[in-house]
Design goal:
The protein is 38% helix and 15% strand. The chain is an alpha/beta fold.
Length: 448
């Protein structure tokens, strides 16, 4: 009898994964037709499967990998930290990496946000900020301030508290009976502006809607939570920075906290270290995660003002912020974060990114001119566009077509975006543009 051909390592791994692993943000049945991609190693901007095929990581592995995979300086920092301390609980204990990281993060806010509370991921940071705001008002005798407001189309995570201030139906609707009610106000997303209305004018019109809401409901509102400049999961909605400065003024006027969710936009993604800096303001709470460790280890943090911290500083245990995570302030993650911050300084990353953004936008011109593309937009190191198409399951089909071109894209509905590692070379970005054009043309040819 003829021998059966050997089963590749890729096939073995994906079959085992499909049986044993419940993958996130995924309808598992789709993997009957759409194979998983088994990644065995990564280097620079490239992911490699077991058969040696490689894929250009155009989304920084879900927006976390800032400096490419296997970055030698971050590798060395984690290895060195492992020799002395991997982890110790942060309740009653402390260690040098978490102290130094907290000091450096505070310095990046010009000392305005001087206290760091650590969690494990972005949703955890959202939960911490919401609870901390609520508890602040309780500790200061304003128990009625229990409600929150967010932008239409906002995304702040998928735990129950975070979902309560998220406005993406795909994630939220199923769990609606479990969630606290919160309010939404119009998004300053410039794609929603009427014809002839500038992004700034649209932002100010939306700010007027926020003012109307706060005027009526400020007595019961604890905080406004917002993704500064770019709303990610709703389709990379970008807006004018003037909305942030007006929102800050309104929060001050009406006695409402401003929570800046920079889980995605922080660490240079928008052209400044933090996106809110483009409006020359400071929030009351700053939520960070994703790129904080350069994409190596889970870590999140909420920075707050001293006035918030002082409201909890008391002899009574019940007035303390009684929230914790087992891996809070993990030493290895903090060491990775410190190494990442050191790269920002040594490589002058923010200035270099501004030049990259100019060069890469020029390289992207042929894609921008594609007849199916609408609303081409860019903020710092984030590019996005919408596709005018009737192709069913467009996102899934473009994802597959891009993989065939050796590119990892992850479309959001009919929105395609690039959020590449800062270490990507010009020639690699050119490959990204060329491969995306080919993948897009192939996908559009499937229209019926």
């Amino acid at each position: 009898m003829p021998a059966h051909p050997p089963i590749s390592e890729n096939t073995l791994l994906l079959n085992r994964s499909r049986q044993a692993v419940w993958h996130p943000c995924t309808q598992m049945k789709q993997h009957e037709q759409l194979p998983l991609v088994p990644v065995t190693r990564a280097e620079g901007c490239w992911l490699y499967d077991a058969d040696g095929r490689r894929y250009l990581d155009a989304v920084s592995s879900w927006w976390v990998n800032l400096f490419g995979h296997a970055e030698p300086r971050i590798n060395a920092a984690i290895t060195a930290q492992m020799q002395s301390l991997s982890h110790v609980m942060l309740a009653g204990f402390t260690h040098r990496p978490v102290v130094e990281l907290s000091e450096q993060l505070s310095a990046l806010t010009d000392g305005v946000l001087g206290h760091c509370f650590y969690g494990s991921d972005g949703a955890s940071a959202t939960e911490i900020a919401l609870k901390m705001s609520f508890h602040f008002w309780r500790n200061t005798g304003q128990d009625q301030k229990t409600q929150f407001v967010s932008l239409a189309g906002s995304y702040h995570g998928e735990t129950l508290g975070a979902l309560s201030v998220t406005d993406v139906a795909l994630f939220k609707d199923t769990y609606a009976p479990l969630l606290r009610q919160s309010a939404t106000v119009p998004s300053p997303d410039w794609r929603l502006a009427s014809a002839g209305i500038s992004p700034q004018a649209h932002a100010q019109a939306c700010a007027q809607a926020l003012e109307s809401h706060l005027e009526q409901h400020h007595a019961k509102t604890a905080a406004l939570i917002i993704e500064p400049l770019v709303q990610g999961a709703t389709g990379m909605a970008m807006y004018d920075a003037s909305y942030l400065s007006t929102a800050r003024a309104l929060c001050d006027r009406y006695g409402v906290h401003l929570i800046a969710d920079e889980i995605m936009t922080g660490f240079g993604r928008t052209g400044t270290f933090f996106a809110y800096q483009q409006a020359a303001i400071s929030p009351d709470f700053l939520c960070l995660s994703k790129g904080i460790t350069g994409g190596y280890l889970p870590l999140s943090v909420v920075l707050c003002r001293d006035a918030v911290y002082q409201a909890f500083y008391d002899d009574a245990l019940s007035r303390g912020f009684l929230h914790s995570h087992s891996y809070t302030g993990n030493a290895l993650a903090c060491a990775a974060a410190l190494a990442s911050l050191a790269i920002f300084k040594s490589d002058d990353v923010i200035a270099s990114n501004r030049q990259r953004a100019i060069r890469w936008s020029r390289l992207a011109a042929p894609l921008r001119q594609h007849p199916a593309i609408r609303h081409w937009r860019q903020t710092g190191m984030i590019w996005a566009f919408d596709v005018d198409t009737s192709v069913p399951q467009f996102a899934q089909r473009l994802f597959s077509a891009a993989l065939a071109q050796g590119i990892l894209l992850r479309p959001i509905g009919k929105t395609v975006y690039f959020m590449p590692p800062y270490s990507m070379l010009d020639e690699e970005f050119q490959q990204l543009i060329n491969g995306t054009i080919r993948a897009l043309n192939h996908t559009l040819s499937l229209a019926v």
